[in-house]
UniProtKB/TrEMBL annotation:
The keyword Membrane does not apply. CDD domains: ETNK_euk. The keyword rRNA-binding does not apply. InterPro entries: Kinase-like_dom_sf (IPR011009). One of its GO terms (molecular function) is kinase activity. It comes from Theobroma cacao (Cacao). Belongs to the choline/ethanolamine kinase family. This is Kinase superfamily protein isoform 4.
Length: 279
């Protein structure tokens, strides 16, 4: 499905999307008769989906409503279960976390537009902002979500490895060492599951583009729960540090630059803020 960028929703857009958008507007008392009343602004920084801000004039005329339309990327089903993600999204809304789900269509959904700015890579290195993120992550980990509390990390790694082997040519599989990754995963699981572990509801994708901050209240909101699941909380902390080595505004967002990985002092400061944020 295509949405016209930097303009209006074209007449060729799926009827389902038009109906859902019109229904959302109607619930807010705004009657939309012409699709050109919906103005589309593409938003950058998302890897898995295409994301758009949709504006339209309110019944008062001098104001505008805003929603966020998320169009699902093709082939992402190999990475996570979309139905699980929707259930998580709805449950998070009930917990008062993140945006509200306003509507769904076959290829995506409509979300509440959060009036906050997305963090930048530089923001994550700011000690004050980093401490706010740490406290929010601790709150996230303490959420009680329905369903089993099983760790999904190792099963997910093996699933992704299996998919990679199916998709790669023999040459690529050899270059990326796919033949030995299975053994490495088993070794890591054995080494890292010894002793007691704190298991919590983890975000698993805490890069700067998934963190928003209200400039006035300094309130932090974590968004995008495609990969969220129960895991060791230490894994989520470590993954957040790895995300600091990524540049999601480059042509190679999947290649990490470990020369900018947070040093020991930064990591200790974040973990200290995490541990002291609650009890």
């Amino acid at each position: 499905m295509a949405i016209k960028k930097n303009g209006f929703i074209p007449s060729s857009a799926p009827e389902e999307l038009k109906k859902v958008l019109t229904a959302v507007a109607s619930e807010w008392g705004d009657m939309i008769e012409d699709m050109e009343e919906f103005h589309v602004i593409p938003l950058k920084g998302a890897m898995t989906n295409e994301v758009f801000q949709i504006n339209w004039p309110t019944k008062h005329g001098d104001l505008h409503q805003k929603v966020l339309v998320r169009v699902y990327g093709e082939g992402v089903e190999v990475f996570f279960d979309r139905d699980d993600e929707i259930r998580t999204f709805e449950c998070m809304s009930k917990h008062g976390q993140g945006p509200r789900l306003l509507g769904r269509f076959a290829d995506g959904r409509i979300e509440e537009f959060i009036h906050a700015r997305t963090l930048s890579a530089a923001d994550l290195r700011d000690p004050e902002i980093s401490a706010l993120v740490a406290a929010k992550l601790r709150e996230f980990h303490n959420l009680h979500m329905p369903g089993p509390k099983d760790v999904l990390l190792w099963e997910r790694l093996r699933t992704w490895l299996s998919q990679a082997k199916k998709l790669c040519s023999p040459e690529d599989a050899k270059e990326f060492g796919l033949d030995i990754l299975g053994e490495e995963i088993s070794m890591l699981e054995k080494e890292l599951t010894q002793g007691s572990q704190d298991i919590g509801f983890c975000h698993n994708d805490l890069q700067y583009g998934n963190i928003m901050m209200d400039e006035e209240t300094r309130a932090i909101t974590l968004i995008d729960y495609e990969y969220a699941s129960y895991n060791p909380v230490a894994y989520d902390l470590a993954n957040h540090f790895c995300e600091m080595a990524a540049n999601y505004h480059s042509e190679t967002p999947h290649i990490l630059d470990y020369s900018i990985y947070p040093d020991l002092e930064e990591r200790q400061r974040f973990i200290s803020a995490y541990l002291t944020s609650s009890d």
